[in-house]
Amino acid sequence: MVKVYIDGQEGTTGLKILERFSGRTDIELLRIPEEKRKDLDARREMINSSDYTFLCLPDAAAVEAADMAEDRVRVIDASTAHRTNPAWAYGFPELSAEFREKIAKSNRVAVPGCYASGFVSMVYPLVKLGIMPTDYPVCVHAVSGYSGAGKKAIAVYEGENRPEEYNSPRQYALSQQHKHLPEMQKICGLEYAPSFNPLICDFFSGMVVSLPLHTRLLTKKYTVLDVRKALSEYYADAHFVKVMPEGEPADGFIGSNNLSGTNNMELFVNGNDERMILCSRLDNLGKGASGAAVQCLNIMMGIDEKTGLE
User: Fold this and answer.
1) Is 158:203 a contact under the CB 8 Å cutoff?
2) Where are the alpha helices (DSSP H) in the chain?
3) Are 231 and 269 in contact (CB under 8 A)?
4) What is the pairing mode between strands 275-282 and 265-271?
5) How many whole angstroms separate alpha carbon 163 and alpha carbon 226?
6) Measured between alpha carbons, how far is residue 143 from residues 114, 196, 256 in Å?
7) What tens digit of pLDDT does each residue of 142-190 get?
8) pLDDT tens-place string over residues 235-276
């Protein structure tokens, strides 16, 4: 049995990780007393009493906590702080055998961001397979449930007498400085940062990240069938990532909350000979946060990656 501590256990991601540990007998959860949640010495003691520590913290606090961890403690960071740090393994094992192996062997793993997970699931293989050039002018759109916006925003969405505009999708990150952009660019090997257009919507959890493509700008002329086949083969052995074989759903709509509560991700490829649209659907709290974190833990423990995620 391994000892696991969650630093930031009262946040949305921390609470969801706790839920996913329900019923597991191979883990001993270390719980810090409520009154000591922000006590530096108490947190250091808990971190270094654990075999595995999850960091579900703001970036600065996550860096501080990681620095407190002894080398033997295996740290899984769900913040933005270490995602572009080459010393940390990037926690998206489906991207390649090399990613998976580094997660398995590393004592420091950074869990991808929710938007970045959807983005990377499409762009990384397109670049890796030579379909998309590294200087492609990438523009990506996304809609997400409000659970990813933090406790204060959740309270407003779920409170009485909320502002009328909260009933509609709300666009943000207008300055093109969203915190996931460096991760999107670096992990995929893009020469330029993508343009990113996220919207937060009036549903709790779920997400669709959409990637429009102009076929004339790809490395050669590819069809929808070509791209769908390439992605299907790329993810053929992945349990949690599936390329949808039918492309466009029968009713012509791709919902955003269909995978809520799961660690699954679905990729759609649609369009025509001139313009395609790729979509990645996931739960922002699942494959985009807590589910991915638990999946990385399982790989690091050397057990079935699906444990606690089915």
Assistant:
1) no
2) 12-20, 40-49, 59-68, 97-105, 114-128, 151-157, 181-188, 224-234, 291-301
3) yes
4) antiparallel
5) 46
6) 11, 11, 7
7) 999 999 888 888 989 999 889 999 999 999 999 999 999 999 999 999 9
8) 999 999 999 987 767 788 999 999 999 999 999 999 998 999
Asked, colleague to colleague, whether 2-111+288-301 and 114-284 share their fold, the answer is no
Q: How many alpha carbons fall within 13 Å on the CB side of residue 66?
A: 25
- The three-class DSSP label of residue 51 is coil
With beta carbons less than 8 A apart as the criterion, state whether 38 and 73 touch: no
**Architecture of the domain delimited by 2-111+288-301:** 3-Layer(aba) Sandwich (3.40)
| Integer angstrom CA distances of residue 100 from 70, 94, 103, 168 | 23, 7, 5, 39
Structure tokens at 164: 């009328």
Q: Which of 39, 31, 25 is nearest to 10 (CA)?
A: 31
- Residue 135 pLDDT grade (very low, low, confident, very high; cuts 50, 70, 90): very high
CA of residue 44 relative to chain centroid, distance: 27
- 201 catalytic? Reply is no
Q: Which of 114, 188, 201, 296 is catalytic?
A: 114
Domain spans of the chain, in order of start = 2-111+288-301, 114-284
CATH superfamily label, 114-284: Dihydrodipicolinate Reductase; domain 2 (3.30.360.10)
Q: Single out the residue of 31, 51, 16, 32 nearest to residue 297, CA to CA.
A: 51
